[in-house]
Amino acid sequence: MGRLVPAVTRALDVLELFLHGDGTLSAPEVTRKLQLPRTTVHELLTTLAARSYLVRDPDRPGQYRLGVRTYQLGSRYAEQLDLAAEGRQVARRLAADCGESVHVAILDGTDTVCVARADSTHAVRMVSAAGHRLPAHCTAVGKMLLASLPAPELDARLDGLELTALTPHTITAGPELRAALDAVREQGFAVEHQESGPGVGCVAAPVRDRTGRVVAALSVAVPLIRWTDERARELAVLADRGAGDLSQRLGHERSPV
Questions:
Q1: Cβ pair 77, 252 in contact under 8 A
Q2: How far is it, in rounded angstroms, from Cα 103 to Cα 202?
Q3: DSSP character for 124?
Q4: What is the C-alpha separation between 32 and 92, in angstroms, rounded?
Q5: Nearest by Cα to 110 from 31, 188, 171
Q6: Alpha-carbon distance 36 to 10, whole Å?
Q7: 154-161 long-range CB contacts below 8 Å, 24 or more apart?
Q8: What pTM value is reported for the model?
Q9: Is 120 exposed, middle or buried, given 0-12, 13-18 or 19+ CB atoms closer than 10 A?
């Protein structure tokens, strides 16, 4: 492995400062934040501005903001993203770490469609296939995706919808479903307990793109023989971790806590 180039590292450190705050910084602020000599900061800012990675803010003298070249690179990166391919990598890694089945799904109308999966390493496990479709109201990923919709869009999708029962545990009443979606929004994850099939529990978390929009959901599924309240809490953490990893691959950056 080759050595890191200090000058390049410092230039990238400068650019990454603009990911936070209001997106503008002055040379003294960069100097203070990175603890670099003023001359070095001046040279870095001048070089980055000359290459259009930074630009002087015309409305705020002495302030810099990101330039058009960073937008071009980001747009090019976004064009090359493939949710299914990225989802498969994340699902495989998470399944290998936790030993359970992992699924990534998107919303299509009022159904969920599995776009990526990785099977559990246990003999008793939940098995599905990419492309598998289920009603959204009876799955953890589906409830996560429905709960993430703007209210008018959610109303349009649920208006007049017959909530088909796949098991005795499936939600079939509109008010009950809406209450469940309210709970999903409040807790930040969704749970399914034998609603789409017998003997299986799932926990799902939202996957966001670079704009912060929820574009998919990731779930971890286990058979009930391995389901406990404590395990469900662990699954929520695992699902959140996997969804956060996939979101990051799609260009989303979580706000600092």
A1: no
A2: 10
A3: S
A4: 42
A5: 171
A6: 9
A7: 154/181, 157/109, 157/110, 158/110, 161/110, 161/137
A8: 0.69
A9: buried
Question: Among positive and negative, which fits the CA dihedral 253, 104, 118, 165?
Answer: positive
Name the token pair of 40. Answer: 């070095």
- Whether the per-residue pLDDT at 251 is higher than 90: the answer is no
Spatial strand order of the sheet with 63-66 comes to 24-26, 63-66, 54-56
Query: Could you give the residue ranges of the DSSP H alpha helices within the chain?
Result: 6-17, 27-34, 38-50, 68-80, 83-98, 140-147, 151-158, 174-187, 229-249
User: What are the structure tokens assigned to 229, written together?
Assistant: 């309240």
Q: Is 106 exposed, middle or buried (0-12, 13-18, 19+ CB in 10 A)?
A: buried
pLDDT tens digits along 183-223: 999 999 999 999 988 888 999 999 998 889 999 999 999 88
Could you read off the pLDDT of 2-21 as tens digits, one per residue?
788 999 999 999 999 998 88
Which strands, in side-by-side order, build the sheet including 190-193?
A: 133-135, 111-118, 101-108, 214-223, 200-208, 190-193
Question: Residue 72 CB: number of other CB atoms within 10 A?
Answer: 12
